Amino acid sequence: MTEKEIMIYEMINEGYSLNEMARNLWLSPRQVHQKIQKLISDGYFIKPLYFDDGNIRYVFEKNDEVHTINLSLNDSTKFKALVISDIHIGNELENLSYLYKSYEYARDNDIHVILNCGDLIDGNFTRGTQIISDIDEQIEKAIDLYPHDNNILNIICYGNHDYSSYESGRDIASAISKRRPDLVSGGYGFSLINVERDQFILSHPLNNISFKPMPHKLILEGHHHRMLVKINRNNFVINIPPLSDLCFGYQENPGMIEMQLLFGSGFIHCGYFKQIGIKKNFEVFSETNLEFFLKHENLEERKLLLKK
Fold first, then answer.
1. Series of mean pLDDT values for 10-residue runs along the chain (308 residues)
2. Number of H helices and number of E strands within the chain?
3. Which residues is 229 bridged to in the sheet?
């Protein structure tokens, strides 16, 4: 190991965060992340731990989970996040100014976690016209132009357009996670977010691929390009509007959801969802308060994956 890799190894053992390591080593968080990736490639089992204040810490432990993110709260009674979806980089209706405005909103409202419900890129098929058809170029644009803030984490559930990169032999989830520690992969199709004693789910349907039902959960779902709240006996589904001009339905507007969840005894008991338009000024289109009467059943990702 190099001298800096030895120092990183020791700081991980001492519980330093990624930002703290960067400051101590006079490196950027991304440079420290690259050195941690080198330690992993050398055979060290290093697992990231995520916090709702935007911090990342590490432990020496094998990380086999693909669809599961453990998120620790600084205040065990509440969690606030911004929820976005369907950016479609490469499509003529992409609008990265919306993405930069979402970061502006997060900073101004003390939000340190952005939940991304998929279709970051347009992939190898489209609804409309592509200005970038090459998947490698789409991925590079996403890595280079996606905003960055040391105090904001993105958790991304990759969607069907993203998955087309995987089918083409270019895995966007792996490419991004190796170079951008602030962009956390929650897998393709669904992500289980473990928080306190409970869970909620990020979801984005994949073409010709389905997963087992996810009952008794709050589900934040991309793909539909419109805001909609659906409630049944088994779960609560919030469809997330697009953060692009690729809107379905003449009344839909590009935007995002500000979400606040409240906890009791470690379980989610109610949620507040504010739909925010982003085209001009930040405009509130709707506000929804939900009480969750759910059977608190912890799901495991391996039980949700269909046998091939």
1. 92 96 96 95 94 96 89 96 98 96 97 98 92 96 96 97 92 94 96 96 90 90 93 89 86 91 94 94 93 84 76
2. 8, 15
3. 238
How many whole angstroms from its chain centre is CA 97? 19
pTM of the predicted structure, to 2 decimals: 0.95
User: How many domains does the chain fold into?
Assistant: 2
Has residue 29 been placed in a domain? yes
Q: Residue 225: name the closest of 250, 254, 189 by CA.
A: 254
> Please, what is the end-to-end C-alpha distance for the chain in angstroms?
40
Residues 74 and 39 in one domain: no
Q: Determine the structural domain holding residue 24 and report its residue range.
A: 3-44
Structure token pair of residue 90: 């490469």
**Which tokens in the block code for residue 32?**
């420290």
The answer to whether 121 and 171 are in contact (CB under 8 A) is no
One-letter amino acid for residue 126 of the chain: T
Helix crossing, 29-41 with 3-13: angle to 10°? 90
**Same-domain status, 78 and 127:** yes
In a domain, 63, yes or no: no
